[in-house]
Amino acid sequence: MNRTTYGLDIAKRVFQMYWVDADTGEIVNRRFSRTELIEFLSKSSPGRVALEACGSGHWWARKIRAFGHEAVLLHAKLIRPFVQTNKTDAADARAIWTAVQQPGMRTVAVKSEERQAVLGLHRVRTQLTKFRTMRIYQLRSLLYAVWRDVENWQAGLAELQDRMADIEGRVPGLLMDVLREQLARVRSLDEQISVLEKRIAAWPKQEASCRSLLAIPGIGPLTASALVATVGDIRTFKSGRELASFIGLVPQQRGTGGKIQLGTISKRGDPYLRTLLIHGARSVLLRSNKPNPWAEELSKRRHANIAVVALVNKMARTAWAILAHGQSYQPGYVSTRPQSQMN
Questions:
Q1: Do 201 and 227 sit in the same domain of this protein?
Q2: Based on the domain organization, do 14 and 81 belong to the same domain?
Q3: Residue 22 CB-density burial (10 A; 0-12 exposed, 13-18 middle, 19+ buried)
């Protein structure tokens, strides 16, 4: 008996599902409420349900699997080309149904509740960091005209806190009260960010896959937890290059007439994860006590940023090899292809 493939377009209250009955060939494009959809899935015979990988898509995928169906998550950019008419719920459901049946269609791994929670902590930390940066920029801009002997942002904030009494006579009292309040908010944000980072760092100690990544130079608790939580099932990627491509670290390809030109990195995928990896690689290249000989030699021939991105690409491939094969990190390890046996 052939399984039925469903294309599901999800929303908050209205859900649209498109399918072709495997037995009768009947085409159905039906609208459900949340309760009706759950009841329909629980009573239907096991099939394949495709939906868009969005914020609630992982919750629905876990729910669909609990009913015995196969849940397939697709990236929104891969679905859009199959929308033949104006964008409606019915058209989107049909586009999802069409996209999932294309040969070689890439899918998104379903994340567990725990990994979604870890990513939630990362998102909150990112927002608090942006708030902190905005407040520091505002403080410096307000004091720029009257106090210009600050060399850099981080040292300037600490110096500003120590010299509040010195600048009190240069700034009107009304503005000075606001500056003190802003400084108090920055200190409060520092404390909140510190608490979040401790909570995030505690998760890799419990997750075996994260602990194995911590041995890679340039990958700390933040990067390891973000990488494992974002990637999900490492078996989704067939090679380290696919993981690097997922993060956006491989060159763009443009070609016609059989000629292919390589450009800058694609920058596809999660920019937050890519940023963490780039910062880690930069620290290895510029500040590490045990510098990477391969990256140092590359930096002599190419621009520093190119060397950093190349090192990030190597880190991503190393992380894939460790997670996919269940091995530990070995410095200086050189992979070799097995020799083909002659008949």
A1: no
A2: yes
A3: middle
